[in-house]
Amino acid sequence: MTSPASSASSGQKEIDTRTSVASRITNKFGAANVIADAAVLAAYEVDGMRPAAAVKAGTVQEIVELLTFAAAEKLAVIPCGGRTKLGIGAPPTQYDVALDLSRMNRFLAYEPHDLTLGIEPGVGMSALWETLGPERQWLPFFAAFGERATIGGVLATDAASPLRHAYGGPRDFVLGMEFVTGYGAAAKSGGRVVKNVSGYDAHKLLIGSLGTLAVITRANFKTFPFLPARDVFVAHFKSSATAMDYCRAVQKSVLEPRLIEAISPEAAKIISTGAEAPLLLNANGWSVAIGVAAHERVVERHARELAAFATQAKASDFIRLGGDDQSGFLNPMSEFPSVTLAADPGAVIFRIAALPTVMAALAERLAAVARAVQLDHATLLRPHGIVYFALMHPSGAAPDAGRFARAVQDVFRAADELGAKARIEWAPVELKRAVNAWGEQRPDFELMRRVKQVFDPGNVLSPGRFAGGI
Asked: Are the beta carbons of 190 and 176 closer than 8 angstroms?
């Protein structure tokens, strides 16, 4: 049993250690861009852990110096920008310094005629649209917490945009990156134009790594031109099975929509709260939303054939929303996690990789899991391979950690039995310390561990946050 005197001594030792780290960081890098005030550092907490200092780096050289120093002093560093997605991943095993990249927000190169763009990781989504919009170009990035999200965070978490159906994920349109490894070496991979020399695309390893391998200092993209006509169509169905039958019929056809979303009635309610205009989703059954962007005649063909497919799939309703601006639909879909957390801060949100052929069965299994423990739930199916599933407190019910823990294990089990792979993206820290946010250890863990050893042999960057405690 720990005595009060022993606890007090341990607490004082921790305070002294944090003070020492903050003092050394400030002495090394100067007070101008170092934060050591505990109240301000609360904004940099990760799963209840607060760093001793935050460094606002403005150049690659400053990042190199910080990581070299951290490796020598055995300090743990977590990179961040808008800090909207620091809750994703397992709790860190150590956290001494926050590396704030918000000052690195420059557009380094933009060639509209070549459809190429080079930017620093601190560039925000709004700044991106303001620069690309006048050139009638864009990037298919639509992520949760979009108003504050930065490009670095979107890449580090491999944010699941609804537009993956047509454009793929960031790995498909990132041309190259520059980065700093965990031991302070500046490196680059890929290039700055669409046609690059052959070689390993090492930068693709950083996408979705949660900052555990390296700190991104520049990202080069292939941009996309605006298409002249856009529209959104919504079909209503009785069940997830009939909704997914419709999705598969569209996917097997010659049609090329840029987004397809199958939405449970509970998810429809959540998504609609974040919409500026009515989305006309089905409150009593499932909805399928399909977005199209093409030349006007192609959009009209989609309208005719999507309606015909809906009739064949016995849809109870088929609606053409009209209008040329899809952002009013894309933004609420992208913000499903943020709107869910706003409604219930204690919600548990899963991201599940699944084949389209098992999604309807998976949706039914997940709903059964929630009903068995009397929790509210919402499901969003993206037929290109991603499922979002949220478990929430029933209205007016007191928190019950035991019910959530049982449900989490059942969700992992259901996903595994259907050949899917689940992970928790958002959850209260108490739950994340009780269960493994990444599920069972993956068969490729040893390969991931060896990659971590190459990029960050001192385990400086975001230790413990990735699968298997990497």
From this structure: yes
Residue type, 98: A
CATH class, domain 229-326, is alpha beta
C-alpha distances in angstroms, 225 versus 98, 132, 294, 421? 37, 9, 11, 34
| pLDDT tens-digit readout, 331-342 | 888 999 999 999
CB-based contact 119:310 (threshold 8 Å): no
Q: Break the chain into its structural domains and give their ranges.
A: 1-226+441-470, 229-326, 336-434
Class at the top of the CATH hierarchy for domain 336-434? alpha beta
State the Cα–Cα distance between residues 34 and 25, nearest whole angstrom: 8
C-alpha distances out from residue 187 to 210, 218, 221, Å: 18, 11, 17
pLDDT, tens digit, for every residue of 96-143?
999 999 999 999 999 999 999 999 999 999 899 999 999 999 999 888
Closest residue by Cα to residue 152 from 75, 222, 211: 211
Tens-digit pLDDT profile for residues 193-213: 766 655 678 899 999 999 999
The 10s digit of each residue's pLDDT in 341-368 is 999 999 999 999 999 999 999 999 999 9
d(CA 364, CA 348): 18
